[in-house]
Amino acid sequence: MPVPAIGERAPDFTLRGTEGQVRLADLLTDGPVLLLFYTEDLTPACTQQLCAFRDESATLAELAARVVAISADSLDAHRAFIERLGGLPYPLLADPDLAVARRYGVDDPDSRRARRAAFVIGRDGAVRHAVVPYQPSNAQQFLGVFEALGLGSGAGP
Predict the structure, then answer these.
(1) Tell me, what DSSP letter sits at residue 16?
(2) Which residue ranges make up each domain of the chain?
(3) SS3 sequence of 51-83
(4) pLDDT tens, 12-49?
(5) Is 39 helix (H, G, I), strand (E, B) or coil?
(6) How many CB atoms lie within 10 A of CB 100?
(7) Which candidate, 62, 20, 17, 9, places its Cα nearest to that of 36?
(8) 14-148 topology per CATH
(9) pLDDT for 42-62, tens place per residue?
(10) Residue 33, CA distances (Å) to 16, 74, 100 in order
């Protein structure tokens, strides 16, 4: 499937995560959602991706944004990854068959993994911003996520 277009309704999903079952529609009742897809637990680039957003958790909270990260890895692998990182303020969700990654157009059937991506989904359920592929070392992509969440606009969430 193609990557959802800006303004298009984000595909809803329910996945098991490190903090229990998570449904996108439930997260949206509290504000915008930053949906991160990453390739694999314990890899350098994915560690950089997840830690960068962990380190900005106060800013994300000010923007009323909820964060979830998804990969094909198991919940046990996710828990080990979180422990290795010294904790994360958001859950890691398991998408072992890549069904959700496929709906967002970020599955890689050759590697049987998700490609790194970042989606900002507004409280109304529409995609506000999409970065595919997301490159953790790209400061412009990182800043673009925060701008899509309302940082610097004065408008708030």
Answers:
(1) E
(2) 14-148
(3) HHHHCCHHHHHHCCCEEEEEECCCHHHHHHHHH
(4) 999 999 999 999 999 999 999 999 999 999 999 999 99
(5) coil
(6) 23
(7) 17
(8) Glutaredoxin (3.40.30)
(9) 999 999 999 999 999 999 999
(10) 17, 22, 15
Q: Which residues contact 32 (CB under 8 A, 6 or more apart)?
A: 63, 64, 65, 66, 120, 121, 122, 123, 128, 149, 150, 157
Q: Which of 41, 38, 33 is nearest to 68 (CA)?
A: 33
Whether 120 contacts 149, CB under 8 Å: yes
Catalytic residue among 28, 46, 117, 148: 46
Model's pTM, two decimal places?
0.94
Tell me how long the chain is: 157
Token match 């953790």: residue?
136
Tell me the pLDDT tens digit for each residue of 112-137: 999 999 999 999 999 999 999 999 99
46 annotated active-site = yes
Determine whether 57 is exposed, middle or buried from the number of CB atoms within 10 Å of its CB (0-12, 13-18, 19+): middle
